[in-house]
Amino acid sequence: MDNLQLLTYIVVGATFALYIGIAIWARAGTTGEFYVAGKGVHPVANGMATAADWMSAASFISMAGLIAFFGYGGAVFLMGWTGGYVLLAMLLAPYLRKFGKFTVPEFIGERYYGNSARIVAVLCLIIASITYVIGQMKGIGVAFSRFLETSYEVGLYAGMGIVFIYAVLGGMKGITYTQIAQYVVLIFAYTIPAIFISLNLTGQAFPQIGLGSAMADGSGQMMLDKLDQVVTDLGFHEYTTQARLSGLNMFVYTMSLMIGTAGLPHVIIRFFTVPRVRDARTSAGWALVFIALLYTTAPAVGAMARLNLMNTIQTGEVGAAEGNLVYAERPQWFKNWETTGLLKFEDKNGDGRIQYYNDKNPEFAAKAEAWGWQGNEMVKVDRDIMVLANPEIANLPNWVIAIVVAGGLAAALSTAAGLLLAIASSISHDLLKGIFMPNISERSELMASRIAMAGAIFVAGYLGLNPPGFAAGTVALAFGLAASSIFPALMMGIFNKRMNKAGAIAGMLAGIGVTLFYVFQHKGIFFIKDWTYLESWGQNWFLGIEPNAFGAIGAVVNFVVAYLVSKITAPPPEHIQHLVEHVRVPRGAGTATGH
């Protein structure tokens, strides 16, 4: 066992011991503690836990990789995933907290006065959450398999075991305090390597400043100008102007991610855990602060990782044989990632050197052929490796690499736990207690909750081992499903007294139905293994909108169908209309009632 692997085992093992210790200390003794941590979490602590709940493997591992390869086009994820929190803070969190229930389906069931609406909400919640949790389980397996040198399956089983212990034992109370620890781990893991790399490249300690600073090599060239030069020399589009999406696609994609964020049940449920209405909005504000620490660092991490990768492989003048890295002399990090299958080289011209360029650019490909190149020889550079490989590429100390592994696992585990709790509570509280066994004792309900949580973990693990094709494209699909189903029902439930049960049910079914139909209709555009698009992408798309962005269109369908159906059916009962007015009244902010 080498020093890096030993250090990684120690760091990861220590963080896991911390999570389990917190779960034992914060064990839930009542259903209130299991579902909403007894509604006693301080807003700052809740903001930190919410940030960890939110910053999944997609944020920690994938987002900087997306920015690294999409450049400017990757901004859609930054805008969408953070903008959703503004919607949450202003339009949903305080009103849902004032309503005072445990879960999103419970709110929908009460607001739309019937179990039918509650059942539809549970169905939508489970579809969106299961889609999202697959990515977390995959992230756990990938991180384990690379750095702990185990198989993907063993890594996934280990992650399932850790989640099982602290989620089933502690419920929301245990998850909340565990997520606070996980936030500290993941934010250190993300920012420390970024600071090291920014200092190396630009001499600036803050990556956010380094991104717009001059190179530290004395050339006076700005870092982004250097990156533009490197990638265009290799036939790629300029990093700072590259737009992967059309204007309409980018707008719709951003909207889908924003309203999907505001509709994701595992995020919304966090605002039921604070003591008062005012605290719900405060904790949303703190969550934005804690999220911003990572999200403002991500563009620098993506840009610097891309520059380091290109400089490592392409070490001299483009087109000159001496300018390309000799494959037999490739660095150790390259060999490590080759073993995972996420980095692949093919010597197409038999010269033993690595030629990495964009052979899909016809103009550049013609030049390359004149130099004796016969196609891009880096046949696979998976964008999801960029954050995890970045410290190795930059030759940072082993302890930094070990912390990055722990951070990636913390990000995946924290979100997986929140999603699994949302799924389990919808089954035990909304279906069992709310509909099928209303007289069940609190002790029996708590046991049912833990059994449902265990079942959800095993289902998530199975799907992580055998991911269905529709979920392999991107985590953004889960946001689209939440955007098209849950968000409109919540918004209309709070701000439209006339919205009735028939309208809400019809809207949710229409929204999620049209989104799922569109996704499945175009599911052939995804490669299941590497998440890249086929050559024929965009053919037969509605207004050119790609499936992962279609949630915003599904939300529009939801709103329109719900409005029309509510107009031709009976209005809600008078007491429901009074309830809506009560929820919207800001006066007192719950200080008198504690709600």
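the 2nd protein, sequnce then structure:
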Amino acid sequence: MPVTPEMLAGLKDKATQLRIDSVRSTSAAGSGHPTTCASAAELMSALFFKTMRYDPQNPADPANDIFILSKGHAAPILYAAWAEAGYLKREDLLNLRKIDSDLEGHPPVTLPFVDVATGSLGQGLPVGVGMAAVAKLDKRDQRIFVLMGDGETAEGSVWEAASMASYDKLDNLIAIVDVNRLGQSRATMLEHDMAAHKARWEAFGWHAIVVDGHDMEAVVAAFDEAITPSGKPAVILAKTFKGRGIPFAEDHEDWHGKAFTGDKETEALAALESQFVGSDWQWQPNLPAKSTYAPAPPQPMPAPPYALGGKEVATREAFGAALAAIGKADERVVVFDADVGNSTYTLKLKDVAPERFFQSFIAEQVMVGAAMGAGCRGKIPFASSFACFLTRAADFVRMGAISKANLKLVGTHAGISIGEDGPSQMGLEDLSMTACEPGYTVLYPSDATSAWRAIELVAGTHGPAYVRTSRPKTPIVYGPDEPFEIGKAKVVRQSDADQAVVVGAGVTLFEALKAADALAAEGVAVRVVDLFSIQPVDQELLIASAKAAGGKVVTVEDHFPHGGVGDAVLGALAGETGVQVVKLAVRQIARSGQPDELLDKYGISAPHIVTAVKSLLG
């Protein structure tokens, strides 16, 4: 599409229209961010009406170039761009932020042109890294554009993503930084020091282009340069002014997040409307070439290779074996690692499909964010690290729920049972981090067979999921034909004479079985439940088990007392009369030691279970 004076005039008018629509919609809503929209208007105009290849009537076309609005508070200008492209009705923009409108304050995934929810700043670029990586994997001629604000480049996740993109030579990834100088409460760190901005990005291995973000001809040229493959990701650093085109607000503090009302709206619109140049240029969409990529049909997953009562296997090791097996069966499976693949056993996938193994190094935020991006593009992404280190990416876990992302997280080395490495390595809050999020499937397998089936289940279920695995080797208690379901627990020991129920998961299942043996020797029968599915929880089985055992329930978990196994059971039994629940959990900061010593010292070993059952029985 050649650049002509008529095109430049038309793009300028579209930028003005985007500003006007952003002001009108935020004023109608009585809230929003018109000034941060105004600074990005030329960037959005050049991108949507000159550079990007997309079908404006089919925003979800997988062949389209991809746009991520990382500065999600500028949502009004995104909606304005899609109205200008003809997909949305301009009058619908006035429904911004209303409860019955999908035009929310920050972009929601209910809109077909939004892949991930944004608004938690610093997340767009990590997601873009994953999208760019799998686009290259699939050999798709597709560019990924991520618009950020200069304020959000203070986020560490941006630089994690910048490092990974440079390392992987993702020259199909184009970041745009709207350097408008002003943050929410004060000026940004570097303000308009464009040389410093450029030096930072170049130090991370990016092709950096500095441009006057309000000079349309220069902006168009910058995009043309950025999309030319160079072996490096590109970043356009656009010097802009917050509130551009609105004299009383332009480059002034204290207008962040404030809609213009009354006379101020009238004044702003009058100023903007005077800026039309009166172009008669007719925009024609730059349609993408249809994608020819199609994954091979998935093959059946083989049965778990573990014999009932056979050699002990750690659930983390079974996770790696299952990952390799499902990776062979389904080419949509990809893995994102944080330099722990030899401990989490994700390297087993690398052995069978190295091109589908992505290394983020010790950077858990970009690992999870990139996995979210890959899931948006049709992949089944597994992101795995030690359970404690996934907490570094807690906000990405949260945004995965808001985005309804097809994200599969696996935490290994959970709990004090890891032993000698000590408390900094013990994931004891990971269940609470994931199970509190709506829409997450949270599974906690106890043996190798159930771990294999857990990976198979979450891979085959769309949406966010977390699987918790353990470091110690554990016995095989389920045969290869044992069925498992999301939302279902397992009764592994029962009788008609049960006087109490002990609910465990992971390593504590085996402590529960030891306790059952000790109690049986004293003539006390107890029912043992392997919870397996933390969320959704098997309420029906738990209620039935509690009633069958006189309402006496003991939960035991290698986790802190809040948000894990015990709370899941309490939630399931809430409202049941005559039920008493005792929660055994780790209630202190642990220390280094042998796993068995630690389980006993911190109150979750078999002897403590025996004591708790006896106390309940009086």
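The first strand starts at residue 66 and ends at 69. The two ends are 83 Å apart (CA to CA).
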